[in-house]
Amino acid sequence: MIPLSILELGRVRQGSDRRTALDEARALAVHAENLGYRRIWVAEHHNMPAVTTSATSLVIAHLAAGTKTIRVGAGGIMLPNHTPYVIAEQFGTLETLFPGRIDLGLGRAPGTDPRTLRALRRDPNAADEFPQDVLELQAYLAPVEPGQRVEAVPGSGTLVPLWILGSSLFGAQLAAHLGLPYGFASHFAPQALDMALQVYRQRFEPSAQQEVPYALVGVNIIAAESDEEAKRLATSQQMSFADIFRGQRNLMQPPIEDIDQYWTPQEKIQAGQMLGCSIVGGPDTVRAGIEAFLERTRADELMIVSDMFDFQKRLRSFEIIREVCDSVERAPTRDS
User: Fold this and answer.
1) Better pLDDT: 28 or 123
2) Model confidence at 336: pLDDT above 50
3) Best label site of 59, 149, 238, 253, fewest CB within 10 Å?
4) Contact indicator for 310, 233 with CB cutoff of 8 Å
């Protein structure tokens, strides 16, 4: 049975508020734990009114405090926005509070616009130092070496598992070189999916953390009782993508009957490219879609994005996905 996890952004819905979004994220974590999902991650984004996970480590603490067994982590921390030392302290604290349950996924994109990047007081060229920053962070989370003058407290000796996240060959190559698990963001940038997985698996070098390659792959899944209902629920996410292309920062909108009345043909093409790895439908359609996706990717784990307006229907979507995957066999990983 394929392991399932969830990527959560703490979406703010029209007519709702930010506190509700954060509490719904926690309620989703509890629900996911009860359903047997392996982990729930939150992503760092800034200056986006519909996303409440910018203070990522705090949101992780909020979710972890409401759960008992599910792994909680960052999917991911945009490391160029931070010093490795501070992230080691934050995630060392989380691991100390919630031992054996914290993951730290790392990305090199800023997760925001250039103006907000300046507000973060970070050098726009900091992404060039990403590989070195990963190694520095890893060293702070390792046991203290003799003579080490700077220690992350808490942090040292916690060995919080690191993941490399990305949507290009760069992340795949780095994860392979460092011997770390790899998460590919095909839920919004699927273009390099197949090549990135191939490069990662072919070039993987075993490490103390990871002996064999492990690929987690993001996928959009909107599941409902019927194909028609799922297609309607999916329009909320589709409108969000259209708004991105328009430079609009709207809260999540309720679903509509005809998405073609909302977006232009050009926006439809753009959204189709970004949402290429999407499965929308009732149980049978979702099952067939997941089987085809696993056949294509040989993913070791799926990270599900199921963005929709109605929170109860969102909970039901994750239930259907879990039920469907109970009968889906994991495809064997190719050597290449």
Assistant:
1) 28
2) no
3) 149
4) yes
Distance CA 273, CA 290 (A): 19
Cα–Cα distance measured from residue 307 to residue 11, given in angstroms and rounded to the nearest whole number: 8
HEC states along the chain?
CCCEEEEECCECECCCCHHHHHHHHHHHHHHHHHHCCCEEEECCCCCCCCECCCCHHHHHHHHHHCCCCCEEEEEEEEHHHCCHHHHHHHHHHHHHHCCCCEEEEEECCCCCCHHHHHHCCCCHHHHHHHHHHHHHHHHHHCCCCCCCCCCCCCCCCCCCCEEEEECCHHHHHHHHHHCCCEEECCCCCCCCHHHHHHHHHHHCCCCCCCCCCCEEEEEEEEECCCHHHHHHHCHHHHHHHHHHHHCCCCCECCCCCCHHHCCCHHHHHHHHHHCCCEEEECHHHHHHHHHHHHHHHCCCEEEEECCCCCHHHHHHHHHHHHHHHCCCCCCCCCCC
Q: In this model, does residue 73 exceed pLDDT 70?
A: yes
Q: How far apart are CA 238 and CA 233, in angstroms?
A: 9
The C-alpha R_g of the chain, in whole angstroms, comes to 19
From the candidate CATH numbers 3.20.20.30, 2.30.40.10, 2.30.30.40, 1.10.3720.10, the one assigned to the domain spanning 1-160: 3.20.20.30
Bridge partners, 218 (sequence order): 303
Torsional sign, CA 185, 189, 195, 199: negative
pLDDT in tens, 153-166: 999 999 999 999 99
State the greatest distance between any 2 C-alpha atoms of the chain, in Å, as a whole number. Answer: 66
pLDDT digits (tens, 9 = 90+) for 304-319: 999 999 999 999 999 9
Cα distances from 212 to residues 36, 130, 300, in angstroms, run 24, 23, 11
| Of residues 286, 242, 245, 273, the one with CA closest to residue 260 | 242
Phi-psi region of 10 (alpha: psi -120 to 50; beta: other; left: phi over 0): left
Distance, in Å, from the CA atom of 235 to the CA atom of 179, rounded to the nearest integer, reads 39
